[in-house]
## 1
Amino acid sequence: MEVRLLDARQREAAAALWEACGLTRPWNDPRADFDRAASADNAAVLGFCEGPALLGTVMVGEDGHRGWVYYLAVAPAARGAGLGAQLMAAAEAWLQERGLPKLNLMVRTENKAVIAFYTAQGYALSEVTVLQKSL
């Protein structure tokens, strides 16, 4: 088992995993997110499979200045075995191969367990405010 690049064949499985893990929101179409990343030169969806089963994903991308991670998900039955850390290491390696010096990610403020996970992986809180505008 290893982390590998996903393609359109894993789109539905990835979207189902993201939904099962509570990562989707009504205003974001996870299938469109997958398609954009999987077809871009500056992004990818990485996955951890066991046979035909998709156990984990991470979407990674870069904007030329820094990398970004989205949709880190591990199937509930597969949690606690270090898959999340392996997926993050793969995302970091993907960015390092492209010469990116920094990785950013966003976590909902109330999601203390996920903040603790990332803190344990060496991530620190940034004193920034994220602003958004729907287009």
Note: The longest strand covers residues 53-62.
## 2
Amino acid sequence: MNVKIDTKEKFSVITPEVSEITAIMSDKLLNLFQSYQQKEIPHVVLNLSNVQKIDDHVLEMIVEQQQSFYQENFSFVICCLNADIIAKLEEKEYLDSMNTTPSESEAWDILQMEEIERELLNDFDDN
């Protein structure tokens, strides 16, 4: 599976360059996500602007990975979902537990707010 990775100062944007993400691709995507949890800057925006269809297994894995990132105090925001994928997420009752935005710039804003929140909480814990 081809992906474009755009590394910013405080996060990376991962954009799959395929119209469909199938179950066969899930292991590669999982390994990619998990590799970011080991990086110095582990925060990720998953931009799905090119993706028209996602296999149910892949959606479940993305939900689990997003939760895993947040458990480790890392950010993981998904943006640019099409209406069919949003409907599928709502049908499976995943959408309410996910951090999604309509645009990449809004995802950047959320990542920056979460970074500020982490800094404030660290300052609070130190006192």
Note: The first helix runs from residue 26 to 36.
## 3
Amino acid sequence: MSTTNQGNAGFKLDHTMIRVKDLDKSLDFYSRILGMEVLRNTEYPDGGFTNVFVGFGPEDEYPSIEITYNWDQADDYDKGNAWGHLAIMVPDVTAACDYLAAEGVNIVRPAGPMKNGTRMLAFIEDPDGYKIELNESLSKDV
């Protein structure tokens, strides 16, 4: 089965935006702990917010995360009931969890096979409680 829609052949995922309560904590988590690069960091004084884009490579080639810090509203966020999770592929979920636990990251679902499946995954939380799935390559599951 082909998953390419010729009408959207040039489409690709660009970024996902999340709002955070503490920009420094979030940048430490995504850059130092998870190893993402800060790709752009822009303050918008007239709008009262800062946007920082982080990712694992250049924005034109890889999807990124837009971290938005609203200077006057950081305590008023509600994720709602439609929020799911971000997902990051790692070479070894168990080793990643060991490392992240040593860094004080909250592991909300330890490494193990997917429910009703065999793909290894785990779930962690960022400093704002956003869930992040860690998973291994689909080719490891074949």
Note: Residues 27 and 133 are 18 Å apart (CA to CA).
## 4
Amino acid sequence: MSKEEEAVRYIRDRLREGVSQERIIEELARIGWDYRTLLGFIEMAKAPLFSGDSPTPQMAAAGQWQSSEGKKTENKKTKAVIGGIALAAILIAGGGYAYEKFTGPTPPEVLQKTMMEMTTVKSFSFSLDGTLETPTSSPATSARSATVTLSGDFSFQNPQNSAYRLTIKGNMGVGTSFPLVVDSEIISSDKFLYLKINPGTSIGPISFNMIANQWIKIDLSSDLAKTLFLSGLTIQVPTTTLSLTPEKTTKVKDFVRNASLFKDVESLPAETVDGVNTYHYSFKPDIVALQKLALNIGSVVGVSSTSLPIASSTNAFGSIYVNTRGEIWIGKSDFLIRKLLISDIRGNAMKLAITNYNNTPEILVPFNAKPLQDVLGSLFGGAMVGK
């Protein structure tokens, strides 16, 4: 007997015991059955072909059951025919959900396929909204909170010259004496970084409006190799650039394909996201696997493990993952992530939407960008720029 048949018989027995449909769905959903599939199973369990119930007074009154022995055999055949017709109707109208469960991939299979398919993506667009609440050790100090919104496009058509365009808006360090307000745009292409700071960007009382609306061109091979001295504050900017050889690209893809970042996966009702039919699951992030993946990729691309945002229960990055659950929506036709949601009871949350797979707008660099050194020289006469 297949697991689907066992599920239908189990539902039939529970219904006979007087258990509500809602309770039965709840029981079976906990062990991985899809909600809509369970609705189809319930209809099957109620059908005469499966139920084996005695005739009801209504059936007898309608002449569907006769008491003589000779007519019982005929009635059984009639019931079988009626049951078969009912079953066919169920399969056509609502049992398609059950059929999908019979023949479709399991949640682990879908997630494994997704990790593989994501490594084949050449470009995509995304939007991310995040909120983070970090409690302080002192009762007299208010909690530090942050909100950030990111959106943009990534292109990996040329692995040795990956390009991206980002818009960043955020309010970080709320509750501190030096909150950071960010409103900026970034474009990266051909080993150059282009930065535009929009009005309103500030660090505490320090405003950056004096250089707002100007695209700044940063040469990743020279400008960022220097230390900038701004208002007596030394800022060491990392100079690492991501330039992957085919061999390194293969290693990174292998790490991603073999990563298992999801625990305690449960099926949720399937949904449509931006017109795409999706598999819908809830899960718990696997922090250990996430850290391992970050370290493995960092070792290949040359990023030190000390600069990676490793999650733990004691830092801000980890607080959004520890003791959380997430939801993920995966396209049924292409196994690509369409939406991801991670949240916890403290209000920390991250919502990611991905669109335009392999069909992103062209990433163009600004024609009127000024070199970083020129911008700093115009502000501080060159005296504040480290040599």
Note: The mean pLDDT is 74.
